[in-house]
Amino acid sequence: ILTGVSGATLEKNVYVPSPTTVELTCKLDETSNLKNPQVTWKKESETIGHTSKTPNSWTIQLTISDSSKLGSYTCILKGEKEVSAVFHLQVPKIEGKEKPLITYEGDKAVMICKAEYDPKAWAWYMTNGTELVSIDKILPTEKFQIKKLSANVNRLEILKLTKQDRGIYWCEATFDLGKSKARFEVRVLSITAPLKPFVAVVAEVAILLTTIILFEIYSKMRGEGGEKEFDQIEQL
């Protein structure tokens, strides 16, 4: 729905996992003061015609037969003001984990990918320099285990972590109209890493106690030396 605010652009993602027919409609809000606008539909920069209209709405019907039909479709309404709406037709996104996965040596790392729609297939990769290495086809199963929790949920486990296992991992879902990826970052810490702040505090306390003890000994020695010197002065 377009409100008629000058220069405004509304955007909407439309996820298309498989070939289908899609209808996209731009509709003016009843309170809009944009009257009798000139309407243009575009796919990227190419102008296309709308297939139906009412006094306040304009619709295009698309047959999405392959990935070439995906992309951005825009309706532009021009009058005294100009408003537009963009529909991004794309392969469904899959959910991963944005924040790094922090683990420790010897532990297990677990990564889970979810899709709103059921993909045809799942795959997992790890980054080796600039290349992606397929985990399910190349790497040992005693180290990496892939589990299908359901049609739209897939899980990767890395067992007995070492520092060599840290890096970037990807899960990939394959749909009829294309593929979608999610990124994971795995960080592997030494088992002693959590103790470092504690060790630092203990070291600082030890230094402080040593300084205090040395200062007290020094003060006591000065005090005893001063008393002897005072007694000698009295005798004189």
From TrEMBL:
CDD domains in the record: Ig
Span of domain Ig-like: 1-86, 92-190
TM annotation in the entry: 198-218
One protein family per Pfam: ig
InterPro entries with a match to the protein in the record: Ig-like_dom, Ig-like_dom_sf, Ig-like_fold, Ig_I-set, Ig_sub, Immunoglobulin_dom
GO biological process, one term: homophilic cell adhesion via plasma membrane adhesion molecules
Molecular function terms from GO: cell-cell adhesion mediator activity
UniProt entry keywords in alphabetical sequence: Immunoglobulin domain, Membrane, Transmembrane, Transmembrane helix
GO cellular component: axon; plasma membrane
Domain of life: Eukaryota
Protein name: EMB protein
Organism: Helopsaltes ochotensis (Middendorff's grasshopper-warbler)
Gene of this entry: Emb
